[in-house]
Amino acid sequence: MCLANAVGKLNRQGMEFCNQGKFHEGLTLLRQALQVCQEGEFKTYEVKILNNIGLVLQMQSEFSQAAVFFEEALDKSMGLKKCGTYLADKIRKNKETALRQAA
Hints:
Elements: H1 3-19, H2 23-40, H3 43-59, H4 63-77, H5 84-102
Helix pairs in contact: 1-2, 1-3, 2-3, 3-4, 3-5, 4-5
């Protein structure tokens, strides 16, 4: 299995766990996917995984920590043509929501 497929599978499984309320298991898989992204230079996937980790933290009411992941995702999305403005806008809105919830 190529690394990109492995990352996609870890991401999907991680989010499925989180949607079932199994946050620890989900975050473990998402962090594994993030590590593979960083080692393999999969920048676009890395941005998506960082956003997903932020979403999971937000689901757990860890709003300040979620905002940190959204900020990192935004920073890394700058200059990546594959991310496009849609993803950046979505991450920006996620970050704004998390910051409002943290206040």
